[in-house]
Design goal:
By secondary structure, the chain is an alpha+beta fold. It has four helices and 14 strands. It has helices spanning 7-17, 38-53, 116-129, 182-187, and strands spanning 22-26, 29-33, 61-64, 68-70, 78-79, 83-87, 94-96, 99-100, 105-111, 134-139, 144-149, 160-162, 167-169, 179-181. The strands form four sheets. Strands 3-6-9-10-11-12 form a six-stranded mixed sheet, with helices on both faces. A hairpin with a 7-residue loop joins β4 and β5. It is globular, with a radius of gyration of 16 Å. The termini are far apart.
């Protein structure tokens, strides 16, 4: 990769060479995540349906997966959350390379995979510094769901932790009323 002209070029090349993998630049480093497993996909599909039933479109929102969030943490930094609830006019906030201005993101969600520390540490930091108002993590490694809200001075307060058998109430500030089962968030099935 030494012949690449930028970190972004190297990330693009990895994306082309590793189909199905997610390539991100976090804090100036390329991060590659393997393709999600079946339960991961089922969780995201379920969430999209739940958001639709909650009236995301009527509320002027869109629930989307696979779009990038431009990060102010480095000149080429971006993340690709598993799922996001964004303003309906998010397309007007395109920065570059399928990455959008953070101001249109109301909630981002990550379902942990084999490189879970990116979701539970690195992304907690970068999403807080980006002022993402709500960050929800289905932490399959530790069998819990974490809800981070309302960052102050680039840091989230301690998360609210949810265990199996509980439901997560998505903050009203997102714009839709959602009660999400911890079990389904973790397992992808009820």
């Amino acid at each position: 990769m030494l012949h690449e002209s930028s970190l972004s070029d190297a990330a693009d090349r990895l994306w082309e060479e590793l189909p199905g993998h997610r390539v991100e630049i976090l804090n100036g480093s390329i991060v590659v995540t393997p393709p999600p497993d079946g339960p991961h996909h089922v969780t995201l599909s379920w969430l999209i349906v739940e958001c639709h039933k909650a009236g995301d479109r009527r509320a002027g929102l869109r629930t989307v997966s696979g779009i990038g969030l431009w990060l102010p943490t480095g000149p080429e930094d971006y993340a690709v959350p598993d799922l996001a609830i964004v303003d309906e006019d998010f397309r007007d906030a395109l920065v570059e390379k399928n990455c959008y201005d953070p101001r249109v993101f109301r909630l981002v969600l990550e379902v942990t995979s084999s490189n879970w520390t990116n979701d539970t540490a690195t992304k907690v930091d970068v999403y807080a510094r980006t002022d993402v108002p709500v960050y929800l993590i289905a932490d399959r490694k530790h069998d819990e769901v974490l809800l981070y809200t309302d960052p102050v001075d680039g840091k989230y307060p301690d998360p609210t932790r949810y265990k199996r058998g509980e439901s997560v109430s998505v903050p009203e500030s997102v714009g839709v009323v959602l009660e999400l089962s911890v079990d389904i968030l973790l397992d992808g099935d009820d």
